[in-house]
């Protein structure tokens, strides 16, 4: 280094070379950690969803006990989540159990659909259909609900719920997506889908094998 404190050209080249080598070592490590982050977020989402579903189905003010009666409905034979008059009931009741970005939703008619948003993560409704009800939690996760009602008394019908665990951030992909950029991926998905049955049973969608393994993994996610 010269007396005035300035670096010579050769010293700058050496310093830049060292920085380049360090980047080459560190960046792959950071990249490899991203799948673990998405896996941990999926586990969190699944746990939250399970708690909310248990809370809702046990609330006889919203859904009856098995073989009970639907509120304001004289027909018997409902199981649980098949006791509904509209396809927006489930997302509305779900919204009352979580903190939403943008504040509380006051009634079922105020539930928004994907058409109300311009967010990239909502363009495909997280894989639950061409149109969906959508909720965005305060941690920026995007929850989407298939526009569907369960058949009365059916144990085989299900409603599809999709979650984007990192909101607008890419890749906005779920396993099995036909989008070209998603088809090339073999892991590190940030969206996954769950099936909710009338009796409160929750199953990860059959196509979402990566998410299913992530949620039920018993080994450390940091390995």
Describe the model.
The protein has 223 residues and is α+β, with helices and mostly antiparallel strands. The protein has one domain (36-215). 30% of the residues lie in helices and 14% in strands. It contains four helices and seven strands, in the order H-E-E-H-E-E-E-H-E-E-H. It has helices at residues 9-57, 89-95, 180-183, 209-215; strands at 68-69, 76-78, 132-136, 142-146, 158-164, 191-197, 202-204. A five-stranded antiparallel beta sheet has the order 3-4-5-6-7. It has a two-stranded antiparallel sheet with strand order 1-2. A hairpin with a 4-residue loop joins strand 6 and strand 7.
Sheet/helix structural class: alpha+beta
Mean pLDDT over all positions: 82
Helix content: 25-40%
Order of strands across the widest beta sheet? 3-4-5-6-7
Alpha plus pi helix count: 4
Query: Count the strands?
Result: 7
Domain module tally: 1
Rg value: 23 Å
Order of helix and strand elements from N to C terminus: HEEHEEEHEEH
Cα(first) to Cα(last) distance is 44 Å
Q: What low-confidence regions span 5 or more consecutive residues with pLDDT below 50?
A: 29-33, 219-223
Strand content: 5-15%
| Overall spatial form | elongated
